[in-house]
Amino acid sequence: MIIDTHAHLYYDDIVSEMDKVLERAAESGISRIIVPAVDIQTSVKIISLCDKYEMLYGAVGFHPGDIKDTESGDIKLLEEFLQHPKVVAVGEIGLDYYWDVSYKDKQIYFFKEQIEIAKDKNLPVIVHTRNSTKEAVEIITEKYDGNLKGQFHCFSGTSEDLDEILKLENFFVSFCGNVTFKKYKDINIIENVPVNKLLSETDTPYLSPEPFRGKRNEPAYIKYTLKKISEIKNIECGKLETAIYRNVMNLFFTI
Ligand SMILES: [Zn+2]
């Protein structure tokens, strides 16, 4: 059994063929999918998708790339969304210094605020970083109290960043389809992540694995990424999937 912990299934072109997308996901062994929000609008969409489709669960939060238009009052709405029984995390949140650094302070402010809310509600955080992993890890470490838990999704940090994350109990990393690309450079990072610290994700509709590179990604393609990771780590794919499944259940669905 596999859980896709990160698929942005709220885009119109996906919603319009949701039954088929979920059918293909189920055929690939996927039992649950977490759909992360980036702002208020996507949070609202995700909650209605969760109500409609049994397989779907949600994360609500403000993505650093969309923080420009976020206001402090929006935090209240976020707390409301978190009441929904199928919302299992605060996300995605974090820091993104790749696209736009003019809102750095605002990104940091909302990242910290949302971490506090997650701690308060005892929910995991889904952390996005781009050119900012070191600083994000520092903030998580500073806020860490043994109770804070979460995922560094689509991990793109250094070995040093990974070492710091591995020190935090209940923090995990996951990799996307780009690990299947010929020029993927961080094979050694994947080698160094213990299996009990790994989660599974696609980041649909982005970062399709080979042989679908450049096309719209979907949860069913998760198996190509997992297969690649199992090869890198020299573990039987089924064994890896079972271990990861347990990690995902522990983090998001508190078994
Ligand atoms: Zn995402």
Task: Report on the architecture of this protein.
The structure is a single chain. The protein is α/β, with parallel strands linked by helices. It has one domain: Alpha-Beta Barrel (TIM Barrel). Helix content is 42%, strand content 16%. The protein has ten helices and eight strands. It has helices at 12-15, 18-27, 40-52, 74-81, 104-121, 133-143, 159-166, 187-192, 222-233, 237-252, and strands spanning 2-4, 30-36, 56-60, 87-96, 125-130, 150-152, 171-175, 198-200. Strands 1-2-3-4-5-6-7-8 form an eight-stranded parallel β-sheet. Strand 7, helix 8 (187-192) and strand 8 form a beta-alpha-beta unit. Helix 3 packs parallel to helix 4 and helix 6 (133-143) runs parallel beside helix 7. The protein is globular and about 45 Å long. It starts with a strand and ends with a helix. The model has no long low-confidence stretch (mean pLDDT 96). Zinc ion is lined by residues 6, 8, 36, 92, 203. Zinc ion (ZN) binds at residues 6, 8, 36, 92, 203.
Map the helices and strands.
Elements: E1 2-4, H1 12-15, H2 18-27, E2 30-36, H3 40-52, E3 56-60, H4 74-81, E4 87-96, H5 104-121, E5 125-130, H6 133-143, E6 150-152, H7 159-166, E7 171-175, H8 187-192, E8 198-200, H9 222-233, H10 237-252
Parallel strand pairs: 1-2, 2-3, 3-4, 4-5, 5-6, 6-7, 7-8
This protein binds zinc ion.
Zinc ion binds at residues 6, 8, 36, 92, 203.
Distance between the termini: 15 Å
Order of helices and strands: EHHEHEHEHEHEHEHEHH
The total count of strands amounts to 8
The tally of structural domains comes to 1
Gross morphology? globular
Provide the CATH architecture: Alpha-Beta Barrel
Largest sheet: 8 strands, parallel
CATH class placement: Alpha Beta
Secondary-structure class: alpha/beta
Q: What radius of gyration results from the CA coordinates? A: 17 Å
Low-confidence stretches: none
Question: What is the overall number of helices?
Answer: 10
CATH homologous superfamily identity: Metal-dependent hydrolases
CATH fold-level label: TIM Barrel
Mean of pLDDT = 96
Percent of residues in helices: 40-55%
Distinct ligands: zinc ion
